[in-house]
């Protein structure tokens, strides 16, 4: 297993992929999602957390979006 050296917030990933952040949050929020084990939850403020993904998680998410019937 590769060591994660850096992660990207869900907001940045949405920009990178040209997707709507809410769509990505819905996909990542599903515990059946293959990327579920690749998600890191980062605390931003006392009551706010942000999802973050490493390169592997972004690749999985990119493939899921490419395979989706709505793509």
What does this 3D model show about the protein?
Helices cover 42% and strands 21% of the residues. The chain has a 3-stranded antiparallel β-sheet with strand order 1-3-2. Strand 2 and strand 3 form a beta hairpin. By secondary structure, the protein is α+β, with helices and mostly antiparallel strands. The model has no long low-confidence stretch (mean pLDDT 83). It has helices at 10-17, 21-29, 55-67; strands spanning 8-9, 39-45, 48-53.
Please describe the structure with a list of short key phrases separated by commas or semicolons.
single chain; globular; 3 helices; 71 residues; alpha+beta
Give the C-alpha Rg. 12 Å
The helix/strand order is: EHHEEH
N-C termini distance:
30 Å
Instruction: Give the biggest sheet.
Output: 3 strands, antiparallel
Structural class: alpha+beta
Beta strand % = 15-25%
Low-confidence stretches: none
The average pLDDT score comes to 83
**How many beta-strand runs?**
3
* Anisotropy-based shape: globular
Helix share bin = 40-55%
> Helical stretch count?
3
Order of adjacent strands in the largest pleated sheet:
1-3-2
């Amino acid at each position: 297993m590769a060591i994660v050296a850096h992660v990207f917030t869900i907001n940045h990933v949405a920009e990178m992929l040209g997707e709507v952040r809410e769509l990505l949050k819905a996909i990542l929020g599903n515990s059946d999602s293959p990327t579920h084990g690749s998600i890191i939850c980062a605390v931003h403020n006392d009551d706010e957390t942000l999802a973050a993904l490493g390169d592997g998680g972004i690749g999985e998410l990119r493939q899921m979006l490419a395979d989706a019937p709505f793509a």
